[in-house]
Q: What sequence folds into this?
């Protein structure tokens, strides 16, 4: 089969690999129909995720059709269409029983990280019964790809960890797909104002159409303090993963505020405890657990959440190298999420 394979920082190839087989009775092999590229994949290509080693097939998002199942798989049948969760969970270990699937003893974020991922014709899914979701009849499969990762990530790591409440003022730093997913789901809780921060004018224009009240392009700290009459924001969501964007977030918090980090950080950040220690702030980090995926799927099916808005480009799997070029030059290409179809 063909797959997108990592060969070290800034090195990748679309090449032949052996088709995956069942290794455990709880496994399934899924033929990918649609997948995508995540900002985390870009961090991997920069060398920010050392657990990803040479020869790894990348990707942790997608939908597909079950081709094979192990003898212990009971919730799915060959031929069924499924959504692949970015998080693999056994459902039995201590962390899974806490609902912290991201730290499953035998899973977590392993796809495209420590085992081969979804940017390929086929993928092996461990613990299939608790790591796949049935796709409802008639569902927009491309839209559901957004439920593999970015929507639950934006919602759980940003909105829920940030404890957004009705009337809050919220700043989201980073208007890429994850930041926009946080913007879409933050509106479930009726904040009074959402401020989007980014250096890309196109993404800020998109953010306005998605519900942002105000956008900030430069001098973020100064501008946000002006917008809040010097008080700062109730919730700051970091959706980039850089020292500069984290510093913006910790500099704009009102007393009692929440800083919810989503971004993947490859470098250390400076924490200004000399200011924060007395401000009653809460700083949270999280790897998505995908515990909200079933709820989000219902909201998507109702039409109240429209993740297809995030899709800007389409490619065939054979053109995945072009897809990476487009996604990696998002500002120039005006790219958000790219859909890659295996035909």
A:
């Amino acid at each position: 089969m063909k797959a997108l394979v990592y060969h070290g920082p800034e090195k990748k190839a679309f090449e032949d690999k052996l088709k995956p087989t069942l290794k455990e009775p709880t496994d399934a092999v899924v033929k990918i129909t649609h997948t995508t590229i995540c900002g985390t994949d870009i961090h991997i290509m920069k060398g920010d995720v050392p657990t990803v080693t040479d020869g790894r097939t990348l990707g942790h998002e997608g939908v597909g059709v079950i081709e094979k199942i192990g003898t212990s798989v009971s919730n799915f049948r060959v031929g069924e269409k499924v959504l692949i969760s970015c998080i693999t969970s056994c459902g039995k270990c201590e962390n899974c029983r806490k609902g912290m699937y991201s730290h499953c003893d035998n899973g977590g974020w392993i796809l495209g990280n420590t085992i081969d991922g979804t940017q390929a014709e086929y993928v092996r899914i461990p613990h299939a019964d608790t790591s796949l979701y049935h796709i409802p009849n008639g569902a927009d499969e491309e839209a559901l790809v957004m439920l593999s990762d970015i929507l639950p990530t934006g919602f759980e790591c940003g909105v829920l960890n940030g404890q957004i409440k009705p009337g809050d003022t919220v700043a989201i730093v980073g208007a890429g797909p994850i930041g926009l997913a946080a913007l879409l789901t933050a509106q479930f809780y009726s904040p009074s104002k959402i401020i989007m921060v980014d250096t890309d004018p196109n993404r800020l224009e998109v953010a306005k159409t998605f519900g942002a009240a105000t956008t900030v392009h430069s001098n973020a700290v100064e501008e946000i303090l002006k917008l809040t009459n010097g008080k700062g924001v109730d919730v700051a969501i970091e959706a980039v993963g850089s020292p500069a964007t984290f510093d913006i977030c910790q500099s704009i918090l009102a007393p009692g505020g929440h800083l919810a980090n989503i971004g993947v950080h490859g470098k250390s950040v400076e924490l200004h405890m000399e200011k924060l220690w007395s401000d009653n702030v809460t700083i949270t980090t999280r790897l998505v657990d995908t515990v909200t995926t079933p709820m989000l799927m219902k909201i998507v099916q109702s039409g109240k959440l429209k993740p297809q808005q995030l899709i800007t480009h389409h490619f065939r799997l054979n053109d995945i190298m072009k897809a990476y070029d487009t996604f990696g030059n998002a500002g120039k290409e005006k790219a958000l999420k790219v859909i890659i179809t295996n035909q």
Summary: The mean pLDDT is 97. The radius of gyration is 20 Å. The CA atoms of residues 154 and 181 lie 5 Å apart. The first helix runs from residue 39 to 45.
